[in-house]
Specification:
486 residues; alpha/beta; abc type-2 transporter like fold; 2 domains; five-stranded mixed β-sheet; two-stranded antiparallel sheet; 16 helices; 7 strands; 61% helix; 7% strand; elongated; disordered C terminus
């Protein structure tokens, strides 16, 4: 089996502070950071600046319980009057509308009562024949549990549409009254009443209780779960590598390597996965305790805890796999997937139907949207599967499987190909550098053997030592011994 060689280059004594004056030194960090921040700015602002302009298939419900012509005319006005590309007007029964409101499928509804046409007719007749008549009413309901901004858009749209329908109904009633009276003038109060005969009532369907942050608590709780997995994977990966002796641990001015452990890349990844599961068990419980202590209403605490464990573990395992497969670049890729692309496509602060189509496409697989749907279902909709919990569990499971397969297969291939983390590689490079520097000083003092130190330095920087652990330790000892003897 082929053996890998340590890629740790010993410090070059000929390179000094002038190295930071090169264009490449400054360009790489600046270009990468500016590119990430530019993407962050474009995605975040592009998703929220024009919600009404970006409306597409925004779902609202219309319930017509009236058997007369008045209700049918209102429904026809809504269905044909609103832009079909922007609004998805669903004509439903009362039971169907209630189910879609209870599962967050629609942001608002219009309810036309059974007696609408008869009351409208009686109201018009009362202007001609003295009689007591009740104004017909239509109720506009908003659903803030589906989203605060979405409920606001639904309320504004439906109230505006019903105001226009009210004016058209008033013109029709005025024409009927004029036909009955032969065009005789009406009193001013009667004209005002008949010009807008419908009483438009607005209410909130199943209002959110106190302690929900006006419908934002589900989003922030989902964000906490995702950050626990993403940030936790970075912390766990760094500390595990440091404790195993493969990266240095820095504590203020202290810089040290732990005693290195012989362990493969795949085994190291298994350790990180196990820690992410333990982290999920603990962190989800801590989140629940803090949320309850702050007064956030939680009706399904055990189910929310279990979902939190699952979400944290899935995100953390996938992020750990990316870090193990891609190295330092894995952190940037994880940030792009879980944070930069995830937050604007979550559909939490701005409904997806009010964002550009790119974000609606991202929401089909982005982890943040799936975690938000699960948290919202458990916090606002009683944990119903139709409210997003089933989709959240399904898509999160798919993401977890992808993370497990990616990390497991690739790290196993790394091990089989011989790309091992070699114990003692860093120490060997340091010892060889010390020896080269000492020989260079000795050659300078004696004025002879100038070529020998140069050859030694070249060997330090170009010749890789053997990947066998048994050969590394003697090499370190031999380097240190020769340095001391000299």
């Amino acid at each position: 089996m082929p053996h890998s060689h340590p890629q740790h280059a010993a410090p070059n004594p000929n390179r000094n502070i002038k190295a930071i004056r090169t264009v490449r030194f400054w360009a790489a960090p600046l270009v990468i950071t500016v590119a990430l921040m530019s993407a962050l700015c474009a995605l975040y602002l592009g998703g929220i600046l024009n919600p009404t302009t970006n409306l597409r298939h925004f779902p609202i419900a219309v319930v017509n319980e009236d058997a007369g012509p008045g209700g049918a005319q209102i429904v026809d006005r809504l269905v044909n009057g609103l832009d079909k590309n922007k609004f998805d007007v669903r004509v439903l029964t009362r039971g169907e509308a209630r189910h879609q409101l209870d599962t967050g499928m629609v942001y608002g509804q219009v309810l036309i009562p059974p007696s609408f046409s008869s009351k409208l007719r009686d109201f018009a007749t009362s202007a001609v024949v003295p009689a007591r008549a009740e104004r017909p009413s239509i109720t506009v309901s908003t659903n803030p549990r589906a989203g605060t901004l979405g409920a606001s858009i639904a309320g504004q749209t439906l109230n505006t549409a019903m105001g226009m329908a009210n004016g058209i109904a008033g013109q029709r009633v005025m024409a009927e009254v004029a036909a009955q009276t032969g065009g005789a003038p009406l009193a001013g109060a009667a004209q005002v009443g008949l010009s807008a005969p419908i009483d438009i009532q607005s209410n909130v369907y199943n209002p959110l209780p106190n302690g929900t942050g006006n419908g934002l608590s589900a989003f922030y709780y989902a964000l906490l779960l995702l950050l626990a997995g993403f940030t936790g994977s970075i912390v766990v990966s760094t500390l595990v590598d440091a404790l195993l002796g493969y990266v240095p641990a820095e504590f203020g001015p202290v810089y040290r390597f732990a005693e290195q452990v012989r362990i493969s890349r795949f085994q190291t990844l298994l350790v990180k996965w196990a820690m992410m599961v333990l982290l999920g068990l603990i962190t989800s419980a801590v989140y629940l305790a803090i949320a309850d202590g702050l007064g956030m209403p939680i009706d399904h605490s055990w189910r929310l805890w279990a979902f939190g464990v699952f979400a944290i573990a899935a995100v953390g395992i996938t992020s750990s796999s990316l870090l193990s497969v891609l190295g330092t670049a894995g952190m940037l890729v994880s940030m792009l997937i879980f944070v930069i692309l995830g937050l604007p496509s979550a559909g939490a602060t701005v409904p997806l139907e009010a964002t550009p189509s790119f974000f609606r496409w991202l929401a089909e697989f982005e982890p943040m949207h799936q975690v938000f749907l699960g948290a919202r279902s458990l916090l606002y909709f009683g944990g119903h599967g139709d409210a997003g919990l089933t989709q959240a569990l399904t898509m999160t499971s798919i993401g977890l499987v992808i993370g497990l397969l990616l990390g497991g297969i690739v790290t196993h291939l790394y091990d089989r190909k011989g790309f091992h983390r070699i114990p003692g590689a860093v120490e060997l490079a340091i010892a060889q550098e010390h020896q080269a520097q000492h020989q260079a000083r000795r050659g300078k003092h004696t004025g002879a053997g100038v070529a020998a130190p140069a050859g030694t330095e070249s060997a330090v920087t170009t010749e890789p030592p053997s990947a066998e652990p048994t050969g590394t330790e003697p090499a370190v000892a031999e380097s240190e011994s020769s340095s001391e003897q000299a």
